[in-house]
TrEMBL record:
Organism: Nocardioides marmoribigeumensis
Record key words, sorted: Membrane, Transmembrane, Transmembrane helix
Name of the molecule in the record: RsiW-degrading membrane proteinase PrsW (M82 family)
PANTHER family: PROTEASE PRSW (PTHR36844:SF1)
Highest taxon above the source species: Bacteria
Annotated transmembrane regions: 33-56, 62-82, 94-115, 127-151, 163-184, 204-229, 236-256, 268-290
Classification via Pfam families: PrsW-protease
Amino acid sequence: MSQAYGPAGRTYAGPPARPAIPPAVRKYGPRGALFAVVVSVALLLGALVMGFVLVASGEPRAIGIGIVLATLPVGPLVAAYFWLDRYEPEPTRLLVLAFAWGALVATGAALVLQAVEQMVNSSGEQFSAIVMAPLTEEAAKGFFVLLMLWLRRHVIDGLVDALVYAGLVGVGFAFTENILYFAGAYTGGPDFGPGGIASATSLFVLRGVLSPFAHPLFTSATALGVAVAVTSRSGLLRLAAPVGGYLAAVVMHAWWNGSAFLGGGQYFLLTYVFAMVPGFLAMVSLALWGRAREGRLLARAMHDLTRYGYLSPAELPALVSLRARRGARRQAAAHGGPEAGRLVREYQQQAVELATLHNRVMRGTAPAGSLERGTLMLQRLTALRLATGWLR
């Protein structure tokens, strides 16, 4: 059922000389403050752990080469996730936090947990790789998405949002892990061979070229569970789906790691060709489907908003189509300068956020406080419309 958010078109009696634009609706109350504290403390601790690990290696040249090689896959992967997130762009600061969580918190927590387990149980390399690494690493990576679901409930609206956050956490984790692996390969040793740039480059081909998507792929399984929880009305499914997604991520991770050990590594290439690549292609297909579906749902919600007078039908082409959005911003910038282009961008973004919230209201899965939040969004939308002179 559609839901009204207040008297349409009555928030402002008339345009002032310089309309005051309310700030973006981004206050989350006590939960938002708790999220900021938890993430800040976790990032600080993670940075200390990883700083200690890098300094303790005592090989600055190897670390430098590791950083250079580990950085190469990051750009294309991050760009792919930003492209996926274009219909309803997430706040950049949260996307940066997702990457930083993977690079510092998840890697640091996994290293500490695995080190403690080895000290307590004296387990071997194979047990650590097949059992402990999947359990600890997927828990550490997936915890950020669950934290978002718990403390930033308004942010994750469905499949695409969950995949973007989980994917960037996975990219960040792979970045730091690759630094350690590439540095180890350059230094050489029992696990990496004679060392040197040739060893580091060979490992880069394996991890940075052939399988840079491994960690984002594993964490995407947890994201699927979170997406189901967000869109479901069943309380049981909201609890069970993230757990099931995490277990699926652990199984995928363990299978991938185990293929390098079991049977003397003879199943590694088969696992890559017949499991990892198809899994990656399946996840890409799911992401593209989710992106297209997100566009359709936003368009439906915007059309419904026109029924209440919150949006004008004449506005819809420049709000629904990505190409039309860009064209409207360019036209505004050409006639009114960069400030006009910025205001139109803000207007489009606010309309998309209101439509996203309205879509969840229509589905009956909106979080608490949605009507108050929608009213604030509508007020800002009205002020932005006046400031931009939209449709005048």
